[in-house]
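Final report, results section. Input specification for complex C-07:
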Amino acid sequence: DGGITQSPKYLFRKEGQNVTLSCEQNLNHDAMYWYRQDPGQGLRLIYYSQIVNDFQKGDIAEGYSVSREKKESFPLTVTSAQKNPTAFYLCASSAEQTSGGPTDTQYFGPGTRLTVL
Amino acid sequence: GNSVTQMEGPVTLSEEAFLTINCTYTATGYPSLFWYVQYPGEGLQLLLKATKADDKGSNKGFEATYRKETTSFHLEKGSVQVSDSAVYFCALRGGYNKLIFGAGTRLAVHP
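Structure output:
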């Protein structure tokens, strides 16, 4: 089955610790994205990557970092600099980022719920 | 800048009732428009999309028509089921394929 997997489903972190969220896709998609969802709000873009070894900041990148060493993987690190990290984190991918056609549709993983204790 | 506004929820309906969730947008040009659905504890699933004015997206009995005159993309379903209970997000595609989301509308359907 093709799809996007995120792990873990639930993650607990102590204040001051960095934590890395995993995102893997086997859809052969070029573009990948990280979003943050807070209760009662829509999703906000953290980082995105068009191709391997390239990524750009989204709207709320402060306190986060990413890497894109492999096409299928786009891990997100939530650093201690992120002031309010408790949220639901969603990873997505699309075949091509800028085509404007059917291949620009983003598909989402099941999400990771991060709680800072 | 680009933005999406959805009607506030929750929307509470009885089974087999007619559903409308309003969505309006502000954007430069004519972006692709999307409806995503989120079931409890899960990620988002694409429900339907429309890529140009007057296009109608449809899936699983849901429909939405891209109206450039009113800058709207309202979601409708003729007869809702309990299994349709979820949060529905309207979104538009901005530059670099960035999705701009509305705040979401929670739908609760009772038997």
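The two ends of chain A are 35 Å apart (CA to CA). The longest strand of chain A covers residues 87-94. This concludes the modelling results for the funded period.
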